[in-house]
């Protein structure tokens, strides 16, 4: 159901702290390393670049429907949510704490273009440590749920992190990929991918496409309460699977099948037609409920 415009609280437009305030139970938010205890990046200071007191990420614990929750929220409005040394250390620290304390879940509010290039190797190492920490939390039986719907999407290393999570909840406005549109255009040329064609960008990386492809467990409205409802629904019946080789091989087979089926396509419209959608050009115009119903009716 689509909330009225008067009652909607856009996830896309909200800050990291506003998203957390609407996601968690009222009064349950407790920040770890709050402003008075945190520090900005020393790397940015050396480059005479402005820092942020939280280095662009909020880590906290709280509750969702009275279940104990850990949460990470990247601030896309600071350097595009890019991951630096301190930013990454805060995320890794919370995930390691989750292994010890076993909350009901870790909610990872991803809003990031990837690594912070200003911090070079420190940022790249931070991304790799986050990947390992996500897998360690899952191996300990703690689900890590990615929420993607911010202005920066989930690209670069954070796109990989999102896919390492237990599940992804995304809005139509969310985007998920490895290389961002501007990166592809810069490396391969505008003939390969026109980053200024916003409709094309969303047809290839946007929330509707990712949901239709099976990359995301839930598609929700661009509304903070809708994300909260989606998380609660997902966790209600969730059982984190034990890691195993058979599971990895099954996932690899899915990717190989996808590559064989769609490798020559250059637009989401072509992929949607191949999925069996009679009018692929209508997909961008469908509301959330209509798209979910459409996917449920597709051949498996």
From TrEMBL:
Give the residue range of the signal peptide: none
This protein's UniProt keywords? Transferase
* InterPro entries (UniProt xref): AcCoA_carboxyl_beta, Acetyl_CoA_COase_Trfase_b_su, ClpP/crotonase-like_dom_sf, COA_CT_N, Malonate_beta
Q: Where is the CoA carboxyltransferase N-terminal domain?
A: 1-243
Biological process (GO) annotations held by this record are: carbohydrate metabolic process; fatty acid biosynthetic process; malonyl-CoA biosynthetic process
Protein name (Swiss-Prot/TrEMBL): Biotin-independent malonate decarboxylase subunit beta
According to the UniProt entry, the coiled-coil residues are: none
Q: Which GO terms describe its cellular component?
A: acetyl-CoA carboxylase complex
Q: Which Pfam families match?
A: Carboxyl_trans (PF01039)
Q: Which domain of life does this protein belong to? A: Bacteria
MF terms in GO: acetyl-CoA carboxylase activity; carboxy-lyase activity; transferase activity
């Amino acid at each position: 159901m689509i909330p009225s415009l008067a009652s909607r609280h856009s996830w896309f437009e909200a800050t990291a702290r506003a998203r957390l305030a609407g996601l968690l139970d009222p009064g349950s938010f407790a920040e770890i390393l709050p402003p008075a205890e945190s520090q900005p990046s020393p790397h940015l200071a050396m480059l005479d670049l402005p820092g942020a007191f939280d280095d662009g990420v909020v880590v906290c614990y709280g509750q969702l429907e009275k279940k104990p929750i850990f949460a990470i929220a990247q601030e896309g409005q600071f350097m595009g949510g890019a991951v630096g040394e301190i930013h990454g250390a805060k995320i890794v620290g919370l995930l390691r704490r989750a292994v010890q304390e076993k909350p009901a879940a870790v909610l990872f509010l991803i809003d990031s273009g990837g690594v912070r290039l200003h911090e070079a190797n420190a940022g790249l190492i931070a991304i790799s440590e986050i990947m390992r920490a996500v897998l360690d939390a899952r191996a300990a039986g703690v689900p890590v749920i990615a929420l993607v719907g911010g202005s920066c999407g989930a690209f670069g290393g954070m796109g990989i992190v999102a896919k390492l999570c237990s599940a992804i909840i995304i809005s139509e406005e969310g985007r998920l990929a490895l290389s961002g549109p501007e990166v592809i255009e810069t490396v391969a040329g505008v003939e390969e991918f026109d980053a200024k064609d916003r409709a094309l960008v969303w047809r290839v990386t946007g929330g509707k496409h990712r949901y239709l492809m099976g990359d995301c467990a839930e598609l929700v409205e661009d509304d903070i309460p809708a994300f909260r409802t989606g998380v609660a629904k997902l966790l209600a019946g969730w059982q984190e699977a034990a890691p195993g080789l058979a599971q990895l091989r099954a996932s690899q087979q899915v990717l190989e099948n996808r590559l064989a089926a769609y490798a020559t396509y250059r637009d989401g419209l072509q992929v949607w037609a191949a999925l069996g959608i009679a009018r692929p050009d209508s997909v961008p115009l469908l509301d959330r409920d209509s798209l979910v119903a459409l996917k449920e009716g597709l051949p498996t």
